Amino acid sequence: MVGATVGGLLARQRRGELTRLNDQLRQINAALRRQAKIESYAPTLSYAPVGSKIQESDVIVDPQKERLIAYLRSGKNQLRNQAPDKAFPEFKAALDLAQSLSDHVEEKKAARGLGASLQRQGKYKEAIKYHSMVLNISKMTGEDSGVTEAYGAIADCYTELGELEKAGEFYDKYIARLQND
């Protein structure tokens, strides 16, 4: 009887510690995301020279690429309008089309959109799959834009799932990349 009481008290104490730690991690994450947004707002923006206007007839337009971009824009707008369930099919169509075109840049954008859509719907395990796809595409192509955000998103998903050990690993990667950038 005494052992059960002590065990119950320790379990409650640990739960309280985990809740407090989880709240602290969320606050840190929110602060880091705000900082990253401020610091990453067009740091390498360069403008085209004024006299170099390209004629419309010189631009080659690929209808598949246009459709892909339209899917991505539509999905992004749905997310902005707080409709992640409507954004999902748009990003999914964009992902399929990007994969068929072997366009890794757009494939990564679509995967990021799918992850965000699922995360906002509370489907964290599925969201992790797509955020991880962003990491895999980056590793495969050697181009690492979006990796920092993917680490943060994966950490957030694991936090929501209560897997704080895994969340901590990804928060560490996220913070390390923020410090290196």
TrEMBL record:
BP terms from Gene Ontology: chlorophyll biosynthetic process
Protein name: Uncharacterized protein
Encoding gene, per UniProt annotation: ga16841
